[in-house]
Amino acid sequence: RPRVSARIAGITPSATLAVDAKAKALKAEGRPVIGFGAGQPDFPTPDHVVEAAAAAVHDRSNHGYTAAAGLPELREAIAAKTLRDSGFQCAASQVLVTNGGKQAVYSAFATLLDPGDEVLLLAPYWTTYPESITLAGGVPVQVTADESTGYRVTVDQLEAARTERTKVLLFNSPSNPTGAVYPREQVEAIGRWAAEHDIWVITDEIYEHLVYDDVKAESLPAVVPEMADRTLILNGVAKTYSMTGWRVGWIVGPQDVIKAAASFQSHLCGNVANISQRAALAAVAGPLDVVHEMREAFDARRRRIVSLLSEIPGVECPTPEGAFYAYPSVKAVLGKEIRGQRPKDTVELADLILREAEVAVVPGEAFGTPGYFRFSYALAEKDLVEGVTRVADLLAEAR
Ligand code: PLP
């Protein structure tokens, strides 16, 4: 018998973490690597959050377990924040606090899916989604959009992919990896289509506050209220408050589903670290001005990276409207000769760029769409300019 179960052996390791690890290893050897791989803001966690956590550590009443579904005060604050930011009204009992948005993704699928249930997965997708769906026994059905539509799928495409087994549509706007944001009319059309066909929606809103140019991230169950009873909203503090390492996320959904997911969580991990929940409470109940400052900084870098990438021959970069990623197509460069090599796909080209230009980018293969690179612009502007310039200089050699 195999030592590792087929279920776990079948997981593809996270490609974004792999690129980051390669870049870190080169850096440790003293190489001047510039990394565009990281999916985390490069700002410190806000002071008032750190102070709340420090006070919580010294208060011994925070040293025990909390309820599996989370601290009651935090669940209340998340319900209030959901109304403030998404315009969606819910009770504290409709909130489950999870170990980061990642666990919210897995728990949502584990709670909704039976073996063979199909999930419409909009591509380019975040690397973790298909693995979570498969682990939970579901079948990911990829629906792909390219740069010609700003990486947004249409209802016609969804309808063409729908079968008797379709149970869930996974929606993520603003998107990782493309930064695409669906406008209200499109969210409404997709929500109505889901309602008509009794399809559940899992909507990942983790980048809701990182939107630019007066664009607004719309929350599907607020736009289409009849979907409220069949939608799970996923969110967390990682991206909004620069709290990736604190590991707090959540699911908002109908009470029966949240109760079931909380029962699962009570066996899976008990509860999220009490101190982290206190920190998250300070974050979600606190002001958004620090968030707006981070957004300004990201916006300046966004403009810079899009303009630099667009100048490279063979690179096509739609302007992302949200998150902190640019997702250019480099299809025109593939198959050409660069420094004696002819990369045939973006995995090979990313490897060549890391070796020859000492710049780390994540190949589109990690997001279900070969032919693209994801550049995270969560790095200092000076490094951003230096990194893209190195890539431009290398690709200029393509013949
Ligand atoms: N959802 C999306 C789209 C993400 O990009 C991420 C992080 O990269 C997450 C969820 C989960 O974030 P975390 O587990 O750090 O809260």
TrEMBL record:
<dbReference type="InterPro" id="IPR015422">
    <property type="entry name" value="PyrdxlP-dep_Trfase_small"/>
</dbReference>
<dbReference type="InterPro" id="IPR015424">
    <property type="entry name" value="PyrdxlP-dep_Trfase"/>
</dbReference>
<keyword id="KW-0808">Transferase</keyword>
<dbReference type="Pfam" id="PF00155">
    <property type="entry name" value="Aminotran_1_2"/>
</dbReference>
<comment type="similarity">
    <text>Belongs to the class-I pyridoxal-phosphate-dependent aminotransferase family.</text>
</comment>
<dbReference type="InterPro" id="IPR004839">
    <property type="entry name" value="Aminotransferase_I/II_large"/>
</dbReference>
<keyword id="KW-0032">Aminotransferase</keyword>
<dbReference type="GO" id="GO:0006520">
    <property type="term" value="P:amino acid metabolic process"/>
</dbReference>
<protein>
    <recommendedName>
        <fullName>Aminotransferase</fullName>
        <ecNumber>2.6.1.-</ecNumber>
    </recommendedName>
</protein>
<feature type="domain" description="Aminotransferase class I/classII large">
    <location>
        <begin position="32"/>
        <end position="389"/>
    </location>
</feature>
<dbReference type="GO" id="GO:0008483">
    <property type="term" value="F:transaminase activity"/>
</dbReference>
<dbReference type="InterPro" id="IPR050596">
    <property type="entry name" value="AspAT/PAT-like"/>
</dbReference>
<dbReference type="InterPro" id="IPR015421">
    <property type="entry name" value="PyrdxlP-dep_Trfase_major"/>
</dbReference>
<dbReference type="GO" id="GO:0030170">
    <property type="term" value="F:pyridoxal phosphate binding"/>
</dbReference>
<keyword id="KW-0663">Pyridoxal phosphate</keyword>
<dbReference type="InterPro" id="IPR004838">
    <property type="entry name" value="NHTrfase_class1_PyrdxlP-BS"/>
</dbReference>
